[in-house]
Amino acid sequence: MMATGQELKPGDHIYTKCFGGLYDHHGIYVGKAKVKNPRTGKKEQIENGVIHLLGLDKNGKAKTYQPQCPKCFHESHELRVVLTCLDCSHEGNTIHRYEYEVLLLSFTFKSSGSCSTFTSSEPDVVIKRAYSFLHKKKLRRIQLPF
């Protein structure tokens, strides 16, 4: 569910507020994407792909999805960067588009993690970087500093 008046475009930096706004979960909306169907071994297209860091649950363990998502086949049990459908990435929370080039005065009064005074890269560059990060991080577990 998108925030009022917002429509997603590939390359958009999106986020949802989690645990009542305690933290924000960020991702890059890539639109159409290919995911591997574990039953057939073949790649299948999903319409609303998001590359994001699979977060932690309330117990501090990597989130698990049960049963396996019928859209993107996601059921990861590790803390890592993943490609999932939009539904798996936001888990029912409202989706917001991250804002770039916000005026300094506006930036001061916006909630932390929702915007930046910097300029975003072009959408194709953002998507390329997200896929690069996905492929690099998929090969090894992410080490947290705590």
TrEMBL record:
<dbReference type="Pfam" id="PF04970">
    <property type="entry name" value="LRAT"/>
</dbReference>
<protein>
    <recommendedName>
        <fullName>LRAT domain-containing protein</fullName>
    </recommendedName>
</protein>
<dbReference type="InterPro" id="IPR007053">
    <property type="entry name" value="LRAT_dom"/>
</dbReference>
<feature type="domain" description="LRAT">
    <location>
        <begin position="7"/>
        <end position="132"/>
    </location>
</feature>
